[in-house]
Batch of 2 targets.
Target 1
Amino acid sequence: MISVNLPMSSQDVMKLRAGDRLLLNGRVLTARDRAHRFLLEEFFEKMKEATVYHCGPIIKGSDVIAAGPTTSMRMSPYTPELIERYGIRAIIGKGGMDDKVLKAIRGKAVYLSAIGGAAVTYAKSMMLRGVYKEEFGMPEAIWEFEVKDFPVIVTMDAHGRSLHREVMEASRAEMNKLLY
């Protein structure tokens, strides 16, 4: 496991490779569908060079109850522009993102996979620091957390490698062997 302090520098990003297992420490901001649209409509300073977590947490008071990843693919249409606009260096989610995002992160950022179904475990490594755009509702608001030893895997790196794409290609090849 590689311990990584957030926000990451460009040099940090370029050292990482698909398959690296990380423990993240530092500031993370959540963003789901509504937040992504907002971030393109208006400039939100706190998102500058941020680590974005595709997550709709459950919060009670100041306690993080559950904070697992949501599927990232639906945020793909917004992501290349957000990377350019805010200098985002890391995105956390589940399921990967499309080839346009892989191209957009090349030389700039990484995609980090979190484990679906581990929402309560992830919540234990998070401390609430703030909330923005509460009017979007709990899952869609932008939540700011401090994370400690938050486990993720680099599955799309800044060098153009995507473990998601590799698994799909290998699966397709195996399926073709069975069918033809």
Target 2
Amino acid sequence: MQDEHGFIWTAMLEVAGDLRGARVLDAGCNRGGFLRLLADHAGIAEGFGYDPAKGAVDDARSLAGSRPLRFEAASTVPAGWSGFDAAFSHEVLYLISDMGGHAADVFRALKPGGCYYATIGVHTASRLMSAWHAEQAAALGLPRLYSLDEVAEAFEQAGFDVSAGRLPIRFVPVRAHRADRVVGGLAEWIDYYCRDKTLFRFTRPAQ
């Protein structure tokens, strides 16, 4: 997982900047790799992650060791989790049926002035992933495919200031993508990460 996603996490952190001493929320934390990275290399004070997959959360807890990390099996921000300086998610938004509800939950969890950085590559303007979604949606029980404008509107309605841009991707690891010939070869993957993979920054106003 680190080999597959580490370069994306690094790009997200390049945009987020200095997180020393921050309390961080990871929405859809899976096995906790991103928060372990933050604890080991970004100097966060605390990290909180939730994910609906209980098995993944159990792994996250066992892998956390003595790091200041907490994990819960949940489909939304657990009750009582609040006061975060920053929040992150990687390819979680396309899985959410109630985008407005998710936006409102994260808004409440952030401190005024806090930012939620969320990547999404599975959207209507993404050539590779729109084809993948069409093939897999029924089998995986996925929500309908969102446009980037729909995502932005949902977060604006929740009270966020919304901005979006490209991830500062430097290199795509070849080994992690070589075996995946279902949706595209390496050239198409590079184009996907540099063109279609979008980073949203949702900022809760300071007042």
